[in-house]
Write a structure and sequence with these properties.
Elements lengths: L1 H30 L7 H14 L7 E5 L4 E5 L1 H12 L6 H20 L8 E2 L11 H10 L4 H13 L4 E5 L2 E2 L4 E2 L36 E6 L1 H11 L14 E6 L5 E6 L2 E4 H8 L6 E6 L2 E7 L7 E2 H9 L4 H8 L4 E4 L5
Parallel strand pairs: 1-3, 6-13
Antiparallel strand pairs: 1-2, 4-5, 4-14, 7-12, 8-9, 9-10, 11-12
Helix pairs in contact: 3-4, 3-6, 4-6, 4-9, 4-10, 7-8
């Protein structure tokens, strides 16, 4: 009799575990739709397993550039500091989930390629990703009048509900570039950064960006300001005597319609050089002349490669989940689940 009871309770326990697992996977699939990729996903995980074995699983070394401090933190806690530092917490949850997956992939890919000698990752957005500790972020939210409790819950949901999920292409972690606002169309990576050909970083449509505060910006420069900035921020020597209607000639455009190369006073600049030297929001610009000044009318904000955060939020509002958003912006990619070591 006792033996029968033990068998019964053991069977009941097993059934409970199976039911709980099914419920968990169902909820996961409804929110992220990542599982059920079949044999291809298993094969892909096998291919990238050697990379994952090189990466820290419990703690990562994060460098705070302002102080030089290197602190140990978990990937989840790191991402809770990254996601709202890179994207507004007022964004849709599915857009924040997409950002969490992108940021996790970006970090692991950076770490895999040894971006630092003294740490795994840093908080400098120009080198790795922007990061603020959670107390600083909460203070920023309060100053802006946000509901800090609600914002923190959204960020945590975005990070924890996508835990260990990364983006891959042909069995490798992708270079998960992202930006604020593409201006309606993302950039093909082959147009910038050494003219790389990366099949998943090609130009795609990005809708719903018109209401971003930096969708349209204007920068004006006098002759002296233009010459000073160009000579101080590039390796080229430019001499501009006065402003004429043909002072700046746009020589070529990229496939996405952004400026590629520019002639200023007989000196050739790439649009990326010009953007950096003059502090333009993007390389998607037109030029006009007014009151003895050069006027740059700029559309979009950022380099334009990869995921547009503004576009991601628009697509989330219109029913797309995180996986669909990611697969829209990164052509032909898959999502894989990283099994971290105990």
């Amino acid at each position: 009799m006792l033996k029968n009871k033990l068998v019964f309770f053991y069977a009941l326990l097993c059934m409970s575990i199976v039911v709980a697992t099914i419920i968990f996977l169902y909820k996961w699939d409804k929110s992220i739709q990542i599982y059920n990729e079949g044999e291809e996903l298993e094969k892909e995980i096998e291919q990238i397993k050697e990379y994952f074995s090189m990466l820290p699983t419990k703690k990562i070394k994060l460098k705070i550039t302002a102080t030089g401090e290197i602190k140990e933190t978990s990937m989840n806690d790191y991402l809770i500091g990254v996601v709202p530092s890179e994207m507004s917490p007022l964004s849709e949850v599915e857009a924040l989930k997409a950002q969490a997956i992108v940021a996790r992939t970006y970090a692991y890919e950076k770490m895999k390629n040894n971006g630092h000698s003294d740490c795994d990752i840093c908080d400098n957005y120009a080198h790795c990703q922007a990061y603020y500790d959670i107390q600083n972020i909460i203070n920023i939210w309060k100053n802006r009048g946000y509901d800090d409790s609600e914002c923190l819950e959204k960020v945590k949901e975005a990070v924890y509900s996508t835990e260990n999920v990364v983006i891959t292409y042909n069995g490798d972690l992708i270079k998960a570039y992202f930006h604020a606002d593409s201006g309606g169309k993302t950039e093909d990576v082959s147009a910038i950064w050494g003219k790389q050909n990366i099949p998943y970083l090609v130009s795609v449509e990005s809708r719903g960006e018109e209401n971003h505060k930096y969708y349209k910006t204007t920068e004006k420069f006098s002759v002296a300001e233009l010459e000073t900035k160009l000579n101080a921020n590039t390796s080229k020597e430019c001499s501009i005597k006065n402003i004429t209607d043909n002072l700046i000639k746009i020589i070529s455009y990229t496939k996405s319609g952004r400026v590629d190369q520019v002639d200023i006073g007989g000196i050739i600049y790439t649009a990326s050089e010009l953007r950096a030297a003059l502090g333009l929001k993007s390389t998607n610009f037109t030029v006009q002349y007014s009151n003895n000044e050069v006027v740059f009318n700029v559309t979009g904000y950022g380099h334009g490669v990869g995921m547009s955060q503004t576009g991601a939020n628009y697509y989330a509002k219109n029913g797309m989940n995180a996986k669909e958003i990611i697969q829209h912006y990164y052509t032909g990619v898959d999502l894989a689940y990283l099994n971290t070591k105990d």
